[in-house]
Batch of 3 targets.
Target 1
Amino acid sequence: MGMVDIFEDLCLDAEAEGNRDLWLKAAAAALIIALRKTAKARAAYWTEEAVRCIASADPEAEEEFQGLLQYSPWRALDEVVEAFERKYFTLDEVLD
């Protein structure tokens, strides 16, 4: 199963259950996907997906993470990953 499939399954489960932890795992999966992209537009898309999942998990953090999307796509990705890992957990943990 690829990361996109994992992401989609996590989103479906998180939405059905309203589960904060699943939303955060979906956000982490989206960030992992974004980090693997070499095309700027695809990296930006997956970074935005991650921020959408973070907003679903933690509405109070939505403004903070949305603000990070103002940067160039590569910097936005770096900033979102850094903020995510500082606030929630490292991306490595989603693969366990």
Target 2
Amino acid sequence: MRLLPVGLIALAMTATPAFALNAGDSMQDWAGASSADKETLLRKLDAASGGDASRERVRSCLDDTSRATGHANLPISEVAKACSEQDARENI
């Protein structure tokens, strides 16, 4: 009977993903990520270089893109770069 609780814990650990959003992940991963994971990745991508307003615009762009048909498999890093470039053009 002692093996049953240990077995259940081991099963729970393997069934629970240790998910951390990475730049190489897809937009589908972005869509399913928590707000905290998104914020952490945005900081890693240095999208915050333009300040909080810029980061929010890039995040909004990423959110919109993650919902767009046909964009689920695009790498987050490429979309974030395009969103940052778009934001920079709009702020000129």
Target 3
Amino acid sequence: MKDININSTGSKKRPKTLDACPHCGTKLSPWEQVILSVDRALMCKHCWYRIILDVFEEDENLEDKSKE
């Protein structure tokens, strides 16, 4: 997995895409990475594991910006 970035406010920011399936470790193709970044969900073709990215952290950041 890629390194966790820290933004200007000091909070940790997770990468938007994964390089491999977290369950079986099979490398995701560039096209699968694009689909995962857009849809936030993808089924691994190798082990049929459902990969779902957590979107709640981004929603919280949007709410914080709207309060300011």
